[in-house]
Amino acid sequence: MEKVEKNLFGTIKRLGKRLARSLLEDVLTAYCVMRDPDTPWQAKAILAGALVYFIQPFDVIPDVMPMGLVDDAAILAAALERVGRYTDDRHRDEARAILDKLFGEKEAIVPAS
């Protein structure tokens, strides 16, 4: 789990200035739902797959290209939609707290619309 966290948080820090805060909140919400002991293993597996795809820099549309994160965002959105019934406000609150800790509260990342 430590390696996953290191890779996930490293990717967020690396891409943070390019991404909308709402997308980063979604990534971290998926992470928080996946870590929740009450989340069924099937939902955890779906979220783990989406997070691994997000972490990997080379995928269908490489992240270094313009628009390279569109596929990552789509996969993440589909995963969160699929496991939506296991997601609640405490997961979103925890995700926001992690994001604030990583970047400082409301630091100069693109604000959510």
From TrEMBL:
Subcellular location: Endomembrane system
GO cellular component terms, A-Z: endomembrane system
Membrane disposition: Multi-pass membrane protein
Main location, first listed in the record: membrane
UniProt KW keywords: Membrane, Transmembrane, Transmembrane helix
InterPro entries reported in the protein's UniProt record: DUF1232 (IPR010652), UCP031804 (IPR016983)
Domain DUF1232: 43-77
A Pfam family assignment: DUF1232
Keyword Transmembrane helix attached: yes
Name the UniProt record assigns to this protein: DUF1232 domain-containing protein
